[in-house]
Design brief:
Aspartate Aminotransferase, domain 1; 574 residues; 3 domains; Aspartate Aminotransferase, domain 2; Jelly Rolls; 15 helices; flat; seven-stranded mixed β-sheet; five-stranded antiparallel β-sheet; alpha+beta
């Protein structure tokens, strides 16, 4: 069965539809100036003849709150005896870095310029001389601005159509752009723009994950944050790291955070801080990314595997008791795929044992268990900020969160060569740092995380409601007490997983498997466990398939995937 293209909801297949937010600081520093939503004074001007009817419609739509896709930034003007100096600053006025600037001049009074849309480009328009009218449209809203009357910049967000018209004879317009020229970002035809904007562009393929879409959305914020670090000259530690540690600890509901090099080191450093090492045992789930088990081996302890629930892939708490011995020092519950483990049940099993709980929350940034965020549910928690995570850096990064200041200090000392004072090394430590560039980027992304997670839940709900009736396809369970964040959307197709994978790839859909080889079957653990010891984990490895799910996916893309999955089960032999 050939799949028919599915109309896109609100985007082209290669771009994200979500508009970037303005920071609170920018709102304070740049107050809107006077903006007209009426036509220019000359009622018989070509501008009025062309756009007057649109403005009547726009005025009705703009009653109440102004649209946030264009704002006016008051420029700094410094009068001097030898002339006035007008200043536009990237961080204060524009909010995006400038990678291209051009001038528009000598435009005949009856002519216009612009008349195109941009998918990702941001622009700042400044009338240096004379006057000009700017009309900006997005999502059915229109805003008209007469530039040149006051020293202001019109800052236009991504995803807008813009027209420049009604130039005065002496008008000179400076345009500042957030990126260099890219013809693929332009939409030259108004009808093509409306097709793109209203989601009528057909979907013919869906990437599993495209990190450039996130950059399209918040790239200017990230670039300015990285520039701030480079300009500071502080490339190890410093205020950026401290600020993120404090913000993320507060977000998780804990008092302490220690930034480290990656998620694996976050796990191993916390185990070492607890004094866990040779001769000790740590219980971990048999179905997880191998870093969970490797962290135990890294400190010289022994990982003890426990099988998992078939519905969720999470550690089967009912089987933990049988794995506890006199040498058990800790349990690492993994909030796999962004769904929390039943922590109350786990605590009940461990009551009065002295066994500590180290959450592996590498896939659960923002997930909640009975209203509390993952990271605050155990004695401590380890996070990864690998770029593909719900909260991902632009390189490797990790973090430990805990409510205990002494544990945080012990982990921080271990990560700093075993020292709390320079050149005085109290214990044998290592070097594991979250660098300021990553911390600055993560601080930007943390402000978007809840919105992104909400979008993930919307798309996951669409999968769940649209695929529930398919025989042969098993969907992930969501416990009543959980608010997952869907780092991965895993489905099971026992006996047909590989065929389904090939079918989806032939349809142009990117997929993944988390994870194709169970921990105990990895070559590095050959001989430690017998084959068949963890049947649920083995069954998951043979049947799981991860479908595309990212906040930058459009609804139309997810519906395209749904149609492809349904077509497979409609055609596949029973």
């Amino acid at each position: 069965m050939a799949l028919q293209p599915v109309p896109a909801e609100d985007d082209t297949p290669a771009r994200s539809p979500v508009a970037s937010k303005r920071s609170a600081a920018r709102r304070r520093e740049t107050q809107p100036g006077p903006v007209s939503t009426a036509s220019p004074d000359a009622a018989d001007s070509p501008w009025h003849a062309r756009f007057g009817p649109l403005l009547t419609e726009a005025e009705a739509r703009l009653t109440g709150a102004e649209p946030d896709f264009v704002r006016m930034a008051d420029l700094q003007v410094i009068p001097m005896p030898n002339g006035s100096l007008s200043v536009v600053e990237v961080s204060r006025h524009l909010g995006f870095p400038v990678h291209r600037a051009y001038f528009i001049s000598d435009v005949p009074v009856s002519e216009g310029r612009g008349g195109h849309g941009h998918k990702s480009l941001r622009q700042g328009f400044i009338c240096l001389k004379g006057q000009v009218s700017l009309l900006v449209r997005r999502n059915g809203q229109t805003r008209a601005i007469r530039l040149g009357q006051t020293p202001q910049a019109a800052v236009v967000e991504r995803g807008c159509w813009r027209d420049l018209n009604d130039f005065s004879e002496d008008a000179v317009v400076l345009v500042l752009a957030s990126d260099e020229y890219d013809e693929a970002d332009y939409i030259r035809s108004r009808s093509d723009f409306e097709t793109w904007e209203t989601g009528q562009v057909p979907v013919t393929s869906v990437p599993y994950l495209d990190l450039t879409r996130q950059i399209d959305e918040i790239g200017p914020e990230i670039e300015l944050a990285m520039r701030r670090v480079v300009k500071s000259g502080r490339f190890i530690g410093g205020p950026e790291v401290t600020a993120f540690e404090q913000s993320f600890a507060s977000y998780c509901g804990t008092g302490q955070m220690v930034g480290v090099g990656n998620g694996l080191e976050a796990l191993s450093l916390m185990l070492r801080a607890w004094g866990i090492g040779a001769g000790d045992e740590v219980i971990v789930p048999a179905h997880t990314f191998i870093a969970t088990a490797l962290a135990v081996d890294a400190v010289g302890a022994t990982p003890v595997l426990v099988d998992v629930e078939p519905e969720t892939g999470l550690i089967d708490v009912d089987k933990v008791t049988a794995a506890i011995t006199s040498r058990t020092r800790a349990v690492i519950p993994v909030h796999l795929y962004g769904h929390p483990v039943d922590m109350d049940a786990l605590r009940a099993v461990l009551a009065d044992t002295g066994i500590r709980i180290l959450e592996d929350a590498a896939q659960a940034h923002g997930a909640r268990y009975r209203g509390r965020r993952c990271g605050s549910l155990g004695d401590a928690a380890a996070f990864s900020f690998y770029p593909t995570k719900n909260l991902g850096a632009v390189g490797d990064g990790g973090g430990i969160v805990t409510g205990r200041a002494d544990w945080a200090q012990a982990a921080r000392r271990l990560a700093n060569y075993g020292a709390t004072e320079r050149y005085h090394h109290e214990v044998v430590g290592t070097n594991s740092r979250l660098d300021p560039v990553q911390a600055a980027v993560l601080s930007v992304k943390l402000g978007h995380l809840d919105r992104w997670n909400a979008r993930r839940r919307e798309l996951a709900d669409l999968y769940l409601s649209s695929l529930a009736d398919l025989d042969g396809l098993e969907l992930p369970a969501v416990r009543a007490w959980a608010e997952p964040v869907w780092h991965v959307f895993p489905v099971r197709a026992p006996g047909r997983r590989d065929a389904l994978l090939r079918h989806l790839e032939e349809c142009g859909i990117g997929v993944n498997i988390h994870y194709p080889v169970a921990v105990h079957r990895q070559s590095c653990y050959a001989g430690r466990w017998r084959d068949g010891a963890f049947p649920v984990a083995e069954g998951l490895a043979a049947s799981l398939l991860s479908l595309p799910l990212d906040p930058t996916h459009s609804e139309a893309e997810i519906r395209f995937v749904i149609a492809a999955v349904r077509s497979f089960f409609d055609e596949a032999p029973r």
